[in-house]
């Protein structure tokens, strides 16, 4: 039942006149097209299922990055007369951007799941795939920017910079730095999955 | 001449038997396909030319970013007994990465120009377009990461961070900060052009 459905959707416009004027001639290409469409449908359905699984992995990575960064804070066990030493993600604008961007990417991924399912059910609808590739590309840029900005700050926190006279703060806030680094790695994994999703969609679009 | 050439390249496999058995039936769809291919060819050629122009703009932006960041350094007019105050891009690893990534992107863009020209001459070769979209996606990630990492450092240099006790260095190195900010902006422009190139290629792939 699925096979006939998918072969209906291939839009090779052979006019009505062909089937009426040359019956024998018309049936041969129609059968060839049908077999090809079924094969291509199976191939594209595999790509669509892989796309769906990758999106689930990306949701896990992006949510892990958001949650790790968003919940991490460390209060040092000693304090002076004036203030207590505390490190949290909202002390640094790059980390705030990181949390927002990863949350946006997670939300987008959840919203894109229905479209990915449509891609599995109807592998020949290229409009859905085009929509996904366009938004995925934007998300590649967003999540890579967030991860890179946070990574450069994490690097600075780890090793400091003598030229600019910026001291490494990870010596004091070791646990904070560790969980932040983990969040950055998770975000880079999500970015890599997004890049792969774009490539996969491009290959699927090419062979429609 | 071009019209016949392009119609040759549309791969709708109608077997030989069709034209021998039903002559009248075969000529009608062939003509329809030919007209459609010519229209699509013109449309795709326009996209390919636009792609080429955008690549030239991206080369300008990426080269400007590389050159600005690579050549910028500032030596303060006063010095102590021990050292002279000097700021250069290779003091900060994020800026080094920025220069390397932008140089790589410029090099890739120059190398991609011949492929873009092939896309103009033969608009129906989807393999070239697929190759370009895959590498363009990688470059989106690379150049966005470079720009974002540098931007977070530039932001820190401008406004500092009281929580981490990092002082703004732009108060001393005003000219350095200004040219570095310019380089970051140029790099973000190049990244935006790359995102647009990927979308353009995706649309062109969809309608092949």
From TrEMBL, chains A, B:
Composition skew (Basic and acidic residues), residue ranges: 1-11
Taxonomy, superkingdom: Eukaryota
Compartment(s) where it occurs, according to its Swiss-Prot or TrEMBL record: Cell membrane
A Pfam family per the record: CASP_dom
Record membrane topology: Multi-pass membrane protein
Transmembrane segments: 52-72, 92-118, 130-157, 183-205
CC terms in the record's Gene Ontology section: plasma membrane
Domain Casparian strip membrane protein as annotated: residue spans: 45-192
Keyword Cell membrane: yes
InterPro entries: CASP/CASPL, CASP_dom, CASPL
Predominant location category: membrane
Region (Disordered): 1-22
Keywords: Cell membrane, Membrane, Transmembrane, Transmembrane helix
Keyword flag Cytoplasm: no
Family: Belongs to the Casparian strip membrane proteins (CASP) family.
Subunit and interaction comment: Homodimer and heterodimers.
Name the UniProt record assigns to this protein: CASP-like protein
Species, as recorded: Camellia sinensis var. sinensis
């Amino acid at each position: 039942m699925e096979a006939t459905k998918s072969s209906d959707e291939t839009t090779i416009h052979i006019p009505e006149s062909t089937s009426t004027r040359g019956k024998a001639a018309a049936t041969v290409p129609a059968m060839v097209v049908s077999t090809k469409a079924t094969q291509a449908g199976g191939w594209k359905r595999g790509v669509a299922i892989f796309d769906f699984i990758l999106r689930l992995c990306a949701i896990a990575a992006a949510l892990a990055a958001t949650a790790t960064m968003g919940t991490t804070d460390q209060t040092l066990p000693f304090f002076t007369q004036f203030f207590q030493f505390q490190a949290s993600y909202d002390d640094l604008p790059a980390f705030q951007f990181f949390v927002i961007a990863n949350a946006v990417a997670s939300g987008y991924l959840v919203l894109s799941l229905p479209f990915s399912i449509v891609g599995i059910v109807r592998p020949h609808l290229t409009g859905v795939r085009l929509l996904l590739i366009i938004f995925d590309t934007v998300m590649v840029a967003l999540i890579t920017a967030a991860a890179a900005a946070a990574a450069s700050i994490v690097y600075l926190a780890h090793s400091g910079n003598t030229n600019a006279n910026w001291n490494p703060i990870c010596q004091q806030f070791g646990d904070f730095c560790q969980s932040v680094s983990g969040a950055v790695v998770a975000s880079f994994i999500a970015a890599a999955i997004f890049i792969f999703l774009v490539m996969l969609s491009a290959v699927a679009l090419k062979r429609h």
